[in-house]
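anyone seen this seq b4? input:
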Amino acid sequence: MVKRVLSYAVGMTLAICYFLAYQGILSHVIAYHEQHHLFLFSKAYFLHQLQTVGLIGYLTDFLIQFFYYPGLGSLLLTCLLVACYALTRYLLHRLSGKEDFLFLAVLPSLALFFYTMSADHELTLVVGSVLSLSLLSLILCLWRSRTPLLPFCAKLHLPWLRGRGRMLLTVAFLVGYGALGYSYFVQHYNRKEGIMLKTEQHVKHKEWHAVLDYTERYLQGGKTNQLMAYFRSLALYHTGELPYRLFDYPATLGVKTLYLPWNSNSRESEYGHFVYEELGHINEAHRWEFEAMVVWGETAPHLLNLARYNIVNHRPRVAQRFLNKLKQSLFYRQQALALEKRLESGEVDGLRKALDDDGALPARFSNVLNLGPELEYLCDQDPTNQMAFEYLMSYLLLSNNVQRFADNIHRIRHFRYPSLPPIYEEALYIYRLKVGEEQFLQLGFELSASTSERFERYYSLMKSGQTAALRAQFGSSYWFYMNYLSPYGNKAIDN
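predicted toks r here
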């Protein structure tokens, strides 16, 4: 009786730990799988999956579709891992004829759990393992003989150990499993991956303050990379802080802080469309999404976006093809039906088209390596496109192009800023030093006295070589970026 209760208690403990992990610190794993798999209820899909990933892959995708609801996904994955424990315990009993008092059945379940800690894993291994254990258990259950199939295994159960001694050893092993499992999890948990994927989720849901929070966490962990800088720039714009906090985050990547140049990178292909969609450059967003679909397959995010882009581009027949796929799914059918009602209107909530393809203008091919010309073109076509303006000015600052920054500063008059943002004044101060007061005044802008005073302090610290003090006082200034962080040298560029 005690053994049975203990077995149930161990199974329940595993279930609680797994579920809480998938709902909490590993929640990004659930979301990642759901976003990269799409199950369709169609004969064509069934036959295609059998030919490519097999029956186990098909069943895995069937289960993953329920990850659409994170709680349900966590529960399903927990059930699979606990089933692995229960089935292994049953098999050990049948093979040895003895109870698994060392609870060795815990180990395969823990191993599979650790395997799922990283988002980039094949869940078919978990599903396949449980199915294999289930099949083997069924065979042994139907086997009439109760004779141990592997009698030598009985020696592993230490027949000389009885009563309290055996119970103490059981408890010791369980405590050891817990301690070693916790230690392994802490040491191998990829915190960086978790923050990055959770940041992506917040970007998709346009939760911009959360994006800023997660990018800050990433930075506090002593890490920075292009993708997080890219997400942060989007969030800064949408929170109205891009002209004020552009250099709060180490901008050592230069202009790549703002966008992802096309490098045929399969991982980056998933993210490049964000900035173009927000800018209203739908054709370029469409290109990135189509490339992503080629790499990652026909998943829900790609099909939805391609349908949205084709609707606003007035290509209803093309959009319908993507919607027909989604209508065969369980959880995306309603979204597909809602978009289907917008086919003729050409309007989609939350999506704007900055460029009007009326045929009056010649065909334009986007610069896939350089965002600058695209931003300037967007500003020329629509001077009120504030995101295009702020990204253009940020681009020119990050590229050390003070001259072109000054040439384009007049565009700010289309918007209602209370005053020139400090980093804009800092750039114009450099421009004034370069061209002289007379030419500077032709811009029609004045610089505040505080900017001049700040520059005097900055220059004094720089001349005396007090880099630490410079970083502490001016680390978020344009001057510090140009002199110490810019990958393009420490001087202004003229063209």
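Residues 280 and 354 are 5 Å apart (CA to CA). The mean pLDDT is 89. kinda curious what u guys think
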